[in-house]
Amino acid sequence: MGGIKEINRFLLKLAAFYFFWLFADSWLSHNVELFARAWQFCYHLFLIGVRELSILMLHISGYELVNDYRSIAIIGSYGIIIGNHCVGFGISYAFASLIMSYPGPLKTKAWFIPLGMLLIMLMNAGRIAWVAITGFNTGYIMQVEQHDLFNYIIYVLIFLMWLVWIRFVLPRVQSKR
């Protein structure tokens, strides 16, 4: 990414994605029926993905579980409820927006974005499994601490994935041209 024009273009695209998210999540998803259904379906897909990966991680770790659509409990504990804000839809959108805003071929973005979103989902599922195990072992769940800590870890992960995109993926694609 070169001169000031490219940087401004990148920042404008990123701002457009951000304002679309704000508009979509706060207005469209509440006032436009068809959009609201599609938006809820995206949250549903992320919830199912994170829940199933968390369950898999806990099963592999040897825990017996009880679960339903939004909750996971290790037998003998209170368990956790997975809210919409915990499924990673927003942070995955932020990652996709960052990559989409940065210059590069769409064909390459088409595999890099899903791969990054999968990594975010795996990290999120690991967090949910960790919170469930912590609740099982201690008898209580740390609400704020784990959420803030996870956010910092995910922000660093997204920054690192963006660096991989800039320093390794794009130069490799451009050298093949």
What features would you describe in this structure?
With 177 residues, the chain is mainly alpha-helical. It has one domain. It contains 5 helices and 3 strands. It has helices at residues 4-31, 33-60, 89-101, 106-138, 143-175; strands spanning 65-67, 71-74, 80-81. Strands 1-2-3 form a 3-stranded antiparallel β-sheet. Strand 2 and strand 3 form a beta hairpin. The chain is globular, with a radius of gyration of 19 Å.
Quick recap of the structure?
With 177 residues, the chain is mostly helical. The chain contains five helices and three strands; from the N terminus they run H-H-E-E-E-H-H-H. The chain has one domain (4-172).
- Radius of gyration (CA) equals 19 Å
Structural class: mainly alpha
Average pLDDT across residues? 91
Tally the helices: what do you get?
Answer: 5
Q: Major sheet: size, sense and barrel closure?
A: 3 strands, antiparallel
How many β-strand stretches? 3
Hey, roughly how much beta strand do the residues contain?
Answer: 5-15%
Strand order of the largest sheet: 1-2-3
**SSE succession:** HHEEEHHH
Kindly, what is the distance between the CA atoms of the first and last residues, rounded to a whole number of angstroms? 17 Å
Shape: globular
Uncertain segments are: none
Number of separate domains: 1
Q: Share of helix among residues?
A: over 70%
